[in-house]
Amino acid sequence: MRLIGAGTRDDVEYVISDRFWTVPNVITVLRFCLVPVFVWLLFTERYLAAFIVLAVLSSTDWVDGYIARRFNQVSTVGQWLDPVADRLSLMVVAVSLVLAGIAPWWLVFCIIVPDIVLAIAALAMFRGSPELAVTNLGKIRTALLLVGTPLLLLAQVPGLAEVPLTLSANIVLGLGCAGHIWAAGDYLMGCARKSRALTARGLDPRDRASWASG
Asked: How far, rounded to the nearest angstrom, does the alpha carbon of residue 63 sit from its chain's CA centroid?
């Protein structure tokens, strides 16, 4: 079974709906609602419980995508809600782990700075989201970060192999951060290409309504 694009079927014609209350979207919302629970458990030093919550939070990123593709529940809301929930969740988790003295400072730097640059570029070019598809690189990057952060937390549980777990977590997070920076650069170039393509067609990249009419 494929990991990227899991649940994709060749025997159905996918229809992208405008509904909000689909099963994948509900899972995405619940995923983000788990973030404050994780933060509370982390700062009350309930590391095993925090690890479990973070592991569930991380796994649902795969589950909602699988359900959306398997049961033809892809939606326009889910296409932007899922990556937004991922980014915000990762930011809050990374900042919390750094403030708790568990994660290295470079984790926050590598996650937040590229996102800030992309947000500024998107606002300058499109006055909002450029509506680019998530690439496989972006999915792999997210998976690495969502695996590395629970490992880092698990190393804080008394009685477990702290040094090997911490080393493994830092390696996975390092790869995830490198992938995050790479994906950000790729996304930035995608923004530039789309802006040039729209301009070449006589459309204003900052006028979203003109995209459909053009």
From this structure: 13
What secondary structure letter does DSSP report for 135?
Answer: P
Q: Structure tokens of 148? A: 């590395």
The Cα–Cα gap between 16 and 76 comes to 6
C-beta separation of 68 from 12 below 8 A: no
How far is 29 from 77, CA to CA, in rounded Å? 11
Residues in CB range of 46: below 8 A, 6 or more apart: none
**121 exposure class (CB count in 10 Å sphere: 0-12, 13-18, 19+):** middle
Kindly report, residue by residue over 23-63, the tens digit of the pLDDT: 888 998 988 899 999 999 999 999 999 999 998 888 887 88
Tokens 């995209």: give the residue.
Answer: 211
| Per-residue pLDDT tens digits for 76-105 | 887 778 878 888 888 899 999 999 999 889
